[in-house]
Known about the structure:
The chain is an all-alpha fold. The chain has helices spanning 13-45, 48-64, 66-75, 78-102, 107-135, 141-169, 172-190, 212-224, 227-248, 250-257, 262-286, 292-312, 318-346, 352-381, 383-401, 405-408, 416-423; strands at residues 2-3, 6-7, 200-203, 426-429. The chain folds into 2 domains: 2-197, MFS general substrate transporter like domains (Growth Hormone, Chain: A, Up-down Bundle); 212-423, Up-down Bundle (Growth Hormone, Chain: A). Helix 1 (13-45) packs parallel to helix 6 (141-169), helix 8 (212-224) runs antiparallel to helix 17 (416-423) and helix 9 (227-248) crosses helix 14 (352-381).
Amino acid sequence: MSENGVEVSKNWKRPFFQVWSGQAFSLFGSQLVQFALIWYLTKQTGSATVLATATLVGMLPQILLGPIAGSFVDRNNRRRIMILADLGIALSTLVLVALFALGWVQIWHIYAVTLLRSLGQAFHAPAFSASTSLMVPKEHLARIQGINQMLNGGLNIVSAPLGALLLELLPMQGVLSVDILTALIAVSTVLPVAIPQPQRERNSADGKPIGFWADFREGFRYVLAWPGMLIIIVMATLINFLLTPASALTPLLITEYFGKGVIELGWFEGVTGAGVILGGLLLSAWGGFKKRILTTFAGLIFLGLPFGVIGFLPADGFVPSLALMFIAGFMIPIVNGTLGAVMQASVDPSRQGRVFTLAGSLAQGMAPLGLVIAGPIADLFGIQSWFIVGGLLCAAMGVVGFFIPSAMNIEAGSPKSAVKEISEVTEVIKVT
């Protein structure tokens, strides 16, 4: 069968899930490393500034270099990029293992390795995401996204307690070594698989490949000339802007507003994670409505409303808040999964690296801005105020989305105006 001009094998499940299982191991190792390093910095320094710096260092490469990495992914062999990124991440972790083993580790070493690992992820994530649409038929993309969301929810639940257990049983270098092992597993699963490559873009005048920066600019033109995709990317960015601060303020909501403790915070996080897993399970089995964007907008309404209602609960409303967070957690994979499937199915495979990284950079970049704005608002009007603002605005976005024709029809593909504008610059030909 043909998907976006690329032949997708009828026997797609075995090679895809072989690659997917390796990436699941790699993600598990990465989350263990993240937990172990954050815990180490917490115990050694007790400094909020150190933890904030480590978080920022981990975000910057993907925010600042994302679109450039996306251009690189679209111009090169995605299978090779995934292998080299995994090996590079493993090598940087190996350096940290040696530093811990020798007793030479310093805080700046952890910053440096965190930066290198994030840089590897900036290339690896779009390569894997863009490869998925070349290996999986369109009608199954939402189900795969549901499985991905279920995996992320499960890892979020188990990685912290398992990481804590390993830190009790092993020295720090032993825990970090798990990441090296899982990275090697990921590489071994990708090596034997032939991942299809998309059609490449060449100059319409002489047939030669267009330059890197022309390729980079063309990715922006592609999005700007496609109103539906631009609206979807803006909405994804606003979701991060509105809901990331609510998640960050959750400990204060539990302790200062509801007057509870760490046990209740654990329950709050636990029911959210359980909702994510069940929502991912539903999406993997169901796949969403035939018109997937309908699932996204409906899910966004029922994702935002629970956050908003939590803000209106009285101080003795902790128990109802658990039910509301379960609903919100359930809707997270419904929204994220179908939104990812819509983009994978709609965006030309030769441009997916650039489009996905542009969307990711904007969304991640908005999260810190949301935190900066949400803090003073919460201080002035109460912790629950941002839950009301963020939740109700998210729900409103879902409602408005139903009335935007360009967004509702995004799955029909890029509009003729975008194709016409781009065809004046490049000509797509198949590379054999």
